[in-house]
């Protein structure tokens, strides 16, 4: 027998293996032929479906735990700062230059818009000679002298 007469079939599909069809007409023809039919519905649950619910829960937690804005300088500090600056007869720009800060910083402290920074408040106290922190805001600095 020659090689031309023999036929080798690789991976032939067995006859008893289930066939997957997606069309309604193929399912109906199999029913008419009396074949066993099993229909399965694909699950739509995937990881993406769970992630959406998780994000909704996280967003709800974020809405519940709103972070309060940082505290601003008290208005009494701004008034005491402005009064001391005007008594010394210097402008906001001159005061800013003296404490090595921008004029906008001095303006923010006087108007009560600034977030308190202890270093800047300390510089302002030393430059003006007035207390801007603690209980006795607006009183002259004593530099450690007891009354």
From TrEMBL:
<comment type="similarity">
    <text>Belongs to the MBF1 family.</text>
</comment>
<dbReference type="InterPro" id="IPR013729">
    <property type="entry name" value="MBF1_N"/>
</dbReference>
<protein>
    <submittedName>
        <fullName>Multi protein bridging factor 1-domain-containing protein</fullName>
    </submittedName>
</protein>
<feature type="compositionally biased region" description="Basic and acidic residues">
    <location>
        <begin position="51"/>
        <end position="66"/>
    </location>
</feature>
<keyword id="KW-0238">DNA-binding</keyword>
<keyword id="KW-0805">Transcription regulation</keyword>
<keyword id="KW-0804">Transcription</keyword>
<dbReference type="GO" id="GO:0003677">
    <property type="term" value="F:DNA binding"/>
</dbReference>
<feature type="compositionally biased region" description="Basic and acidic residues">
    <location>
        <begin position="13"/>
        <end position="22"/>
    </location>
</feature>
<dbReference type="InterPro" id="IPR001387">
    <property type="entry name" value="Cro/C1-type_HTH"/>
</dbReference>
<dbReference type="Pfam" id="PF01381">
    <property type="entry name" value="HTH_3"/>
</dbReference>
<dbReference type="GO" id="GO:0005634">
    <property type="term" value="C:nucleus"/>
</dbReference>
<dbReference type="InterPro" id="IPR010982">
    <property type="entry name" value="Lambda_DNA-bd_dom_sf"/>
</dbReference>
<dbReference type="Pfam" id="PF08523">
    <property type="entry name" value="MBF1"/>
</dbReference>
<feature type="region of interest" description="Disordered">
    <location>
        <begin position="1"/>
        <end position="79"/>
    </location>
</feature>
<feature type="domain" description="HTH cro/C1-type">
    <location>
        <begin position="81"/>
        <end position="135"/>
    </location>
</feature>
<comment type="function">
    <text>Transcriptional coactivator that stimulates GCN4-dependent transcriptional activity by bridging the DNA-binding region of GCN4 and TBP (SPT15), thereby recruiting TBP to GCN4-bound promoters. Involved in induction of the ribosome quality control (RQC) pathway; a pathway that degrades nascent peptide chains during problematic translation. Required to prevent stalled ribosomes from frameshifting.</text>
</comment>
